Amino acid sequence: MTPRRGLAVLACVVFVLASDGARAGHEIPFYPSFYPQEITLTVVAPAAAPRLLGKNALHAYVGPLDSATPAHTAWIESLRSVVLLTFNPRSPAWADSGQRCAAAARLLPALGPSRGDYTFQPYPVTPYHEDFLHHGDLVEAAKTKAREAPRGVVALRVRATGRLAELLGGSGSRPAAGEWDAALEEVELRDLAAKEATQLDGWMGPPWGKAGWFQAHLVYARGVSDAGRRSAIEEAFARLQRGGFASAAERINLERRLVSLLTRGCERVAVGYRVKREAINDDYSEGVENIGWDAQTGLGSAVFLRTVKLKDFPWNGWLRVGVPSRPAAAWNPIAGFGDDAGRLVWAALGDAALLPAPYGGGWVPNRVRALPPSESAGSGVEVPRDALVPDPATGLLRPPASAASAQQKVTYRVMLSKFHDGTKMTVADIVYPFAFAYRWSARDPEIDRATAVLREWLAAVRVVKVDAEIKDFGELQVVYEVPQVEIYLKHAAEAGVAQAIAPPWGVVPWQLIALMDEAVTRRLAAFSESEARRRGAPWLDLARDAGVKKTLASLLDDLERRAFIPEALRGLVTVEQARLRWAALRRFYHARGHFLVSSGPYQLVKWSADSVVLGVFRDLSYPNAVGSFDGYALPLRAWVTSAERRGERLELQADAEVVSKFARSYKIVREPYRLEPTGEQSRDTLVARYAVVGAGGEVLAAGSSEERDGGRLIVDLKGTLAPGAYRVLVALALNGNLVNPEVKVIPFRVAE
What we know:
It is built from 19 helices and 34 strands.
């Protein structure tokens, strides 16, 4: 045993023995936070990463390593970019949509062979989007059209560089250095995310940010030249965001219509997509295992840090991760952490209310959990008089001035814990972010953008009660405070979307937000980069800017002396509570040298220009534990192997991947899937998702089914379809994995 490993084991023992009320020799089956005890992020150039992985100096590299093959390395793949053909909007020769579409049709077959990390798919929604099933028939139709298009020399001057230029090899097109007819372009997914993703305190969004239709709009809408089509596009886009549909089938038809409108004029033409391959150290002893990742952000995601485990340790150990570039964005939880490295740091320090479903487009509970709805969305619900409504201008939280109603209510259970400064979270910490969002939306364009959906939808907030939840470990009992909070929404949405619009949560203490507010109000700093440039003030950084920290420390002394309470929290925070909070923040700053207090699973320990060290926060108040996210490690797939019709239902048989382990090694094998009867507990969840397409191309029914009968998965369409001919699109999701599904198209006829 190495000295370093011995220290880690000793740390585990000390943790067990030092837990309040635990008797020596009694190990509790609960280890707060996640596997590594320390995470070091180091800036490593891509060219140097293979050597460091081969020497076991790195456990993972967050970023593409296109051609390197270091020893004992496993690879994970995620969506990297989309490839498209853009016609020159300034060229009169390509002003006509018919000419553009005809030229694209002649060129596409030459771009058809998939190779390396590039996949040819002349349709915008990819297998890395949850809604791929909804477009499955249209994807195949686009591929067939490209295959059957007449081939010939395409007299286009095409602008392309690097690897994209290689795709033009057999097309007959002329490379264009000066004047050009069309450009073969690659749009990086991370660039789209940087522009549209929202991350403020403990909120992430937008709720539909990973959907194919949403990303297609980002890529294609700006190129549309026809005013009438632009208007129709924005109408469909707005309806999808505001819940302007009555059923899943209507929503899917809107998605399909939106994508059709975006691509109909061929201003920009879908060609394919590229995947990102990231490296994991798979060494038998010194590697890592239990890896989860995100289908669109790969290892640069919260789920990676919440699943990864060092092979040499049951828990604890020192995780070493390489990143390709230095953190450039300021470190503040309001409008900072916006670059790749910063997002990874915040994924460990912060703890969002909900996390993006790694292999789908929805959300998974993290620190809040939405309860099943008690009434149907859109039916209308009265807002209670003891609810709180943020003032649109000031953010002050007040009861509704008169009788008010909302379209939907979402009820949450919120898991509170201690902050890193030792203070306990309270209701004030989870409602103050709402006040802040309204107060600052008109003062900083980035905050305005990040909170636009929340402010458009939120009607009121109501704290119903605070429960005590007890975890009993024999001689040790841990008591959690769990507020139940109702959020009232102005619009109605499907449950999976509604829960992510305005979850009641704040990952940093209210006094830290108030301290930052005071500094920015006095124009001593700015929350966002754009506002910092406009003001000529520092971009607020709570750790790395010595000048900003000195300013904050001076303000802190004044606020502590006054026991300052923000006006929005009057009645929720007492003077004594405020004194304790400000004193704790001061002590934290003097002990740690920074102001990045949060309630997340890791703490900022030290940092330099090229590295960041994060230490685990193993406080028993932290509600998530080692293993909490293990269900997202090693996503597995399933396939429909046969579909038999019985009356008006389909009976499906399936194959699925299973993990075959031996010691520290494993392999994934495909085998027939054994379905337990409905009602019996199964280790895995297999779901059939389906959409029924009519003869005219319209989706008439859609849904999902877990019903089982006789070892088969059942899709029951009884009473849903009129007489006629249909196609049923079916894809299987094993444990929520919707990535790269095989879409089975099953003919289905309903007799007169």
